[in-house]
Specification:
90 residues; mainly alpha; two-stranded antiparallel sheet; 2 strands; 53% helix; elongated
Length: 90
Amino acid sequence: MSLNYTTKDANLRTPEEIRQEFAMRGIAISSWAREMGFSPGLVHQVLAGRLRCVRGQAHQVAVILGLKSGEIGEISDLPFRAKEAEDSGE
């Protein structure tokens, strides 16, 4: 999934607030997960606090849902990676 997304500290929500939002809109968490390209089990584990959400899809889910501040991007978005690629002629 190619997705650039950023969540700031001011926009953070609790897992309960996120669950309430889904319930208020009548959207199943599992349906949202599949629509976004994530495993429903992974999203439920993130909301339950069973994963650290430091990297990979768990990090992506936590940032998109607003559980943690952070960014989602590609390796090529990293400034030192982009410079390295330029220097090597890629």
